[in-house]
Amino acid sequence: MLVNPHGSDELKPLLASPRQQSFASDIIMSSRELSDLLMLGMGAYTPLDGFMSEADWRGVCDDMRMRDGLFWPIPITLSASKETVESLKLGEEVGLVDENGRLYGSITVTEIYEINKSAECMAVFGTKDPDHPGVAKVLDQGPFNVAGPVKVFDEGDYPQKYAGLYMRPEQTRSLFREKGWNSVAAFQTRNPMHRSHEHLAKIAIEICDGLLIHQVLGALKPGDIPATVRVDAIDALVKNYFVAGTTIQAGYPIEMRYAGPREALLHALFRQNFGCSHLVVGRDHAGVGSYYGPFDAHKIFDDIPKGSLETLPLKIDIAFYSYKCGGMATGRTCPSDESERLNISGTRLREMFSKREEVPAEFSRPEVVAVLQKYYDSLSH
Fold first, then answer.
1. Is 177 part of the annotated catalytic residue set?
2. pLDDT digits (tens, 9 = 90+) for 290-319
3. Considering the entire predicted model, what is its pTM?
4. Catalytic-labelled residue, pool 58, 190, 195, 271
5. Which of 104, 136, 155 corresponds to the end of one domain?
6. Number of domains making up the chain
7. Residues 149 and 225 in one domain
């Protein structure tokens, strides 16, 4: 039996039939809010029915609990400017559009409230530093939140652009059942998979019936590898180095918040909705820069009340190639020191591709290197 959806006996997707007519009023969403709307639409944020009320927002920030006691680690909110909220009426259904005016859904306004951005940033990100990309997003949003149930009319270009990869929770659950998988580990990735990622993924396959390689399809940081390139690189890795039938690759439309420990909890929560019993939590999961300790995302799972989530963390140390041990290892399995390990930073790796330097086979499989080299070569033309 697969894990239950979070806080519910069944998934609650919020997709509705496409609407042809416009609304009297619209709210322009940020890219993060749009990604949250799409997650609500596909049922990934079950059991939420829309954007959070003030009581839910406060509870999530302060105690990671909504008003009804449901565990939830990060606010799912819709912001608006003073000018926008002055045009809204409680009970009114208004359109939800992107910055280009494309209609994605609607919200029935049940509440409008002012927020304390500083308090939210400290609660969610542990910092108010505007250089933190997640903090910057919060500081840039309007001073008010608009709450209410939503309908989603349009999933954007994702289903067409990522045909066969873009999967809703009901689809991944159906695939797991077809394969007879009861335990499934999710491997979160926004990067191509090198040998360290491969090592972590294979540890998960040893423990569970199967592995969901789950790609971030939403907006990323400048310099990150596009999703289509990542897909080709991962396909090459899986085809050549994984046992057939042990993995499924899928994608979902979230935008990273880089909230470290709290985001690791959110990743586990919505993976529960996708049907995953476990989440691979590596070093500095969902982190950025030096804002979080390397194992803060491991520790936070021990700090939440028992029963908050059905999906459990697979806490795995950073993986590396060890010349001392003669293979892939982690800090828990190999006593080598830094001088005996192969470490290549993302910046150094990009430099190697741009200069067409040879990437060591101990770091990345040659089939993956070929895909990435082709991409970097295209940037220079």
1. no
2. 999 999 999 999 999 999 999 999 999 989
3. 0.96
4. 190
5. 155
6. 2
7. no
